[in-house]
Write a structure and sequence with these properties.
Elements: E1 3-9, E2 16-22, E3 25-29, E4 31-34, H1 46-53, E5 58-60, H2 62-67, H3 71-77, H4 80-84, E6 90-92, H5 96-104, E7 113-114, E8 133-135, E9 140-143, E10 150-153, H6 155-165, E11 169-171, H7 183-210, E12 218-223, H8 229-240, E13 246-249, E14 253-254, H9 258-268, E15 275-277, H10 283-291, E16 296-299, H11 301-307, E17 310-313, E18 316-319, H12 339-343, H13 346-354, H14 359-385, H15 388-395
Parallel strand pairs: 4-16, 5-6, 6-11, 7-14, 11-12, 12-13, 13-15, 15-16
Antiparallel strand pairs: 1-2, 2-3, 8-9, 9-10, 17-18
Helix pairs in contact: 1-14, 6-7, 7-8, 8-9, 9-10, 10-14, 11-14, 13-14, 14-15
Length: 398
């Protein structure tokens, strides 16, 4: 269903520039993939995403689409592409991350990226009754975030749902755990993810055989292991040896050393298949991920930050809710040529936020997505031109 060609490599690193070809078009890699959680990029139309942002692909959320509008609606509509009027390539995640965010991390403000301190663990008995997800060896039992109803995901059910959604690339069901979990808990998640990966492949191939006249999505396996080198390498070896068409690197990381952990994994994965880093979108992390062998990324951060008044600029980030921007008539980023920066000033967008106008989120989201999408495009060109070190010096904070 997909093919991947590598065109250029970093001479002294793992990074590469390539092209993923899908039934709905090409993704020039490295690439940042905006997240369309419920078949929409919040505050933007698909046309804006294509024409103003220049994104090649989107990633939708299996768990949320299963709950709303539901797989029956998506099937009757002709699949994700027709339903949301997006003609480009698509991904869907597996729902595995929701086992973490709605389970042990629910209500605790625990991120998959953390400054990890030794000896800190999550108490699995504390407040278990309020969690919206419970994990066992066979799958995950969820409570709906919409109405509290109970639902069950297994590897087979996740694959069924993703086939119905109809994305070009789908992910095997996995277990993501917190960076604050113990080594033994991380090891359990690695083993469970491996067992689930085998089940996903078996069920995926069964569906393909039963529907040989239909186009099937490409299935990508997921590597876990947290911040532990031995677990990451083991997971990459066993998942990498399986018949997946690409790979996702999931789970939790130490924020200070994400590039190193990514490098551990990429050294073990097959060279000729695409690698996707799940849920990572900070500009610094993108640059380090590309250098260490990542081809595609997804993250909700650019639009989430935008809806809360935050805008990326080359030197970091600004908060448009601060008083200093009320009479600042310069663009969000003077070096940016996006639609927003060419047409609107900081003062206007700051006014929109204070007036609680919806346009504020639209204009800032356009800018933030353009910023990260084009940052990664520049990285790709730098690899092709043989000038990645110069690119890093310009774009990494001093």
């Amino acid at each position: 269903m997909i093919s991947f060609n590598i065109h250029a490599r970093l001479p002294n690193g793992r990074g590469r520039a390539g092209t993923i070809t899908t039934p709905h078009g090409k993704i020039e890699t490295p690439a940042f993939i905006p997240v369309a959680t419920k078949a929409t990029i919040k505050a933007l139309t698909p046309e804006m995403l294509r024409d103003y942002v220049g994104a090649h692909a989107i990633l939708a959320n299996t768990y949320h689409l299963y709950l709303q509008p539901g797989t029956n609606v998506l099937k009757k509509s002709g699949g994700l592409h027709k339903f949301m009027n997006w003609s480009g390539p698509t991904y869907t995640d597996s729902g595995g991350f929701q086992a973490f965010s709605l389970g042990a991390a629910y209500g605790k403000n625990v991120s998959k990226l953390a400054q990890v301190k030794e000896g800190i663990t999550i108490d699995h008995d504390e407040d278990a009754s309020i969690r919206l997800a419970q994990v066992d060896d066979d799958g995950v039992t969820f409570k709906s975030v919409i109405d509290g109803s109970t639902h069950r995901f297994t590897p087979e059910i996740s694959i069924d749902i993703q086939h119905t959604i109809g994305a070009d690339m789908i992910f095997a069901f996995d277990e993501c755990v917190s960076p604050q979990e113990s080594y033994e808990r991380q090891k359990t998640a690695v083993e469970r993810t491996y067992i689930w990966a085998k089940r996903c492949l078996i069920h995926h191939n069964k569906i393909k055989t039963q529907n040989s006249n239909l186009k099937s999505p490409a299935l990508l396996g997921i590597i876990q292991g947290g911040r532990h080198e031995d677990l990451r390498k083991y997971s990459a070896k066993v998942i990498g040896s399986m018949d997946f068409e690409g790979f996702g690197i999931g789970g939790s990381f130490d924020k200070d050393d994400i590039g190193t952990a990514v490098g551990w994994v990429c050294d073990e994965l097959p060279e000729g298949k695409p690698r996707h880093l799940l849920g990572i979108g900070d500009p610094i992390d993108l640059i380090l991920g590309i250098e260490n062998g990542i081809d595609t990324f997804d993250c909700v951060a650019p639009t989430r930050i935008a809806r809360n008044g935050g805008a990326y600029i080359r030197t970091g980030r600004i908060n448009l809710l601060n008083a200093q921007f009320i009479q600042d008539f310069t663009p969000l980023d003077p070096e940016c040529d996006c639609y927003t920066c060419k047409n609107y000033a900081r003062a206007y967008i700051a006014h929109l936020f204070r007036a609680k106008e919806m346009l504020a989120a639209t204009l800032t989201s356009i800018h933030n997505l353009y910023f990260v999408v084009n940052l990664v495009k520049k990285a790709r060109q730098a690899i092709i031109d043989g000038n990645y070190e110069g690119f890093k010096k310009k774009h990494l904070p001093k």
